[in-house]
Structure formats: C-alpha cells, structure tokens
Amino acid sequence: MSGAGPKREVPIGFKPRGTPGKEVMGYSAADVERYVYCPLSWALARRGMSGVDEALQRGEADHAAVGQRIAKWRRILADHHESLRIALYLALTAASAMTLALEVVFLDAHWAYHTLLVMMSLLWLFIALGFLLRAILKEKEAQEVVAEAGLVEGELAYSDLDRPAETLRSEKYELSGRPDYIVRRHDHYIPVELKTGRTPDTPHDSHLMQLGVYCLLVEENYGIRPPHGVLQYSGRTFEVPFTDEFRDRVLETTLRMRLSDMTGVVHRNHERPGKCRGCSRRDLCPERLA
Questions:
Q1: CA-CA to 235 of 20 to 30 Å: which in 91, 195, 244, 287?
Q2: Quick check: 231 and 206 in contact, CB under 8 A?
C-alpha cells in the first residue's frame, strides 16, 4: 500500500534536456533504461529532480576502475600497432636495400659498396624482427589485461570509460547514447555495457532495453547490424542476441515514452517496496511504496 496517498499524474511535457537553446536527440539510452525501471522515476528525472544515490556513486567508482584498465589496454594496443608499423617499414627498407645490392652485383660485380648495402639491409632486417617481437609481446600483454579485467575480447573500437567519447546519435529513431565500450570482432561492432552491484540470474529488462538502444546506435553509426550486445555484470557476462523481436521491443518502448511525454500521464509500474527504497528519487515521488 502506498504511503503517499492516491496516484497523481506527473506533468512532464516533451522538452529537450541539456543546455538551453541547444537541441538534443530525443531520448538517450539512459532515459530508456530509467523509463523501463520505473516510468515515474524517469518522469521525475526529466523534470530535473534528482537525489542522492549511493549505489550510483559506487557504480561510478567501479566504472572509473574499469576505465583505468581500458586506458592501459588502449596504450598497449597503441604500442602494438606502432611496433608493427615500424617493423613493416624497416622490413620494406631492408628488402629494397637487398634488391639494390643484388642488382648492383649483377650489373657490376666489382662495385665496392654492394657489401655495405647487404650489411645495412641485414641490420634493418634484424631491427625489424626486434620490433616484430615487441609487437607480439604487446599483443600478449593486451590479452592478459583483458583477461585480468574481465573485459570482452576483441579490438577496442570505442570507449567512454577511460575518456569522454563522442555521443552516438540516430536521426532515424531520435536516440542517442554512449556505450561503455565497443569491441570489433571481424566485421562486427559489439556494444558492451557494464553493470555493477548484485549479479542477477537473468538480465534486468531495463538493462536489456538500454543495451538494445546501443545496438540500434551501433547499427546506424557503423553501418552494420551487431549480431548481439553484451551486458557485463561483476559476476557474469550475458551475450544478448539483437534479434528482430528485441529490436521491436526497444522501438515499442520509445513509442510508449513519447506517449507519456505527450499526455503527461505516467505512473509507477511495480508493487515492490524494495525497489522504491533503492530509488534515488523516492523522497520526491508521489507514489512511493516505502
């Protein structure tokens, strides 16, 4: 039974959030996650009502720790690619010098500098092998960082954890968002969202819808539909197939949000006092249960 009297409509109106005079794209992935968790909490947030959320603060600290590991992963990958690039240039230089030396010997066997060219080409080749070995060691080190941090394997294509990343936008669906990170596997880009706190047996619907928005954004921004997205909890990782049915559920959710915005009618969507106790806007909510 509610401790705050009968339900009241919460007028929200459809107003862009952010800097006055600067339009923002429809809804963010965080908006969708919050709406599915509780439409009333989402409505209060859109009205600028926020509260103290200790779980959110702990989550930010955990995300920052993962961001440090991703920053290390990024540095190692940069060293790996640079070592490969240098090894390639040196190998090409060595091959060119060796080819020139052989041509000179063929044209003039008595030319005195062909031995010097051969020695220089061998030196460059050995240096190239050294950089190649360094690249291999860096690749192994990157794999170890990924394994120790529990990160999703693949080529790091995007990260909002170690430094602010560009917001992904979809004009088609009027959505925006910044996934925690994106990895590339072969020709596919896979969005990954980190979730802290207790690990559920199955992903929460609110988290699934947020991930679905990221899949839509990846599809539009990278030009290829991801086969799945990843929800990464502290104790378990879920690969969520991005099926047509899942896509339709995400779009249906955004339609309900627009309807709530237009009508201003929005209510609590649960009967769980514990959920209210865990909400940062519980003290401001007219329909709170606890």
A1: 244
A2: no
d(CA 211, CA 242): 9
**Res 50: pLDDT:** 66
Structure tokens at 122: 């061998």
H or E, element range at 28: strand 27-28
Q: Are 182 and 215 spatial neighbours (Cβ–Cβ below 8 Å)?
A: no
39-46 and 29-37 helices, crossing angle to 10°: 130
Place of tokens 């990954």: 192
- The mean pLDDT value of the chain amounts to 79
Chain segment 9-58, per-residue pLDDT in tens: 444 433 333 333 334 458 999 999 989 988 888 888 777 666 555 555 55
56-62-64 Cα angle (round to 5):
105
Look up the CATH number of domain 27-51+155-284.
Answer: 3.90.320
Q: pLDDT for 112-167, tens place per residue?
A: 666 777 777 788 888 888 888 988 888 888 888 877 777 888 888 998 887 788 99
Contact 178, 192 (CB under 8 A): no
Residue 49, pLDDT score: 67
